[in-house]
Amino acid sequence: MDNMIVINKLSFKYDYRVIFNNLCLSIKKGKFTTILGNNGCGKSTLVRLLTGLEDSNGSISIDGVILNNSSLSSIRRKIGVVFENPDNTLISETVMEDLAFPLENLNCSRDYIYSKINEISKYLGIDHLLNRCPRDLSGGEKQLVGLGCALITGPELIILDEAFSMVDSMSKLNMLKLLRRIKKDYNVTILNISHDIEESIYGDDIIVINDGKVVIHDSKKNVYREEKLLNKLGFELPFMVSLSNKLSYYDLLDKVVYDMEDMVDLLWK
Q1: Do residues 241 and 230 touch, judged by C-beta distance below 8 A?
Q2: What does the pLDDT average to over 233-246?
């Protein structure tokens, strides 16, 4: 499997504060990867570096192309980003206008724009919101529109920068499940950057960053086995993983179960 992202010997600092020190990591195409880190570890800075909003020492490549001034425009077309606060990106009078905006910037035809808005809004279940003002929507609805804006241009990589920190738990759950489906249906790579380890159970791989370096990078199954190291880094196991471990101790389960409904079904068999 090819890499979607390769970062090699990347160093970055703000004034005298070192954020990354020879950071190296790679992310496979088609994976749903969660990058975990405590507040202040440089997660949002990493997003700015990946999208060319900050310069650094070292190299970054996206889909095999080195990020530099000449490739920046084409690389940005491969990436859709969902930010923490949707109010900073939803600026139009209607949801339809916000969804149209990225395609208008690409000089797409009016017919194509309407077709994509119809497709994406129905897929995300926000077609009933198209004539609403984004400012009047709930937090979860706003983030769905933000996700629609990221998805509508057909990106190969979707980056979520603490995208669920301002939505309620049910909206977060629904969006994480939706992202898992988007990965398959639209053949995109998903990078979810978060401080909340609970979000990682919906992905494939986990990367933990601490002190500007990658401390763990493995499948979620293997990362969850490193409970002592996770605790040392300030993370507890996700609830479902911890519950599975306890039930396994009493021979009620023989594997980790990530979904509560699946667990109930197994326990009642």
Answers
A1: no
A2: 95
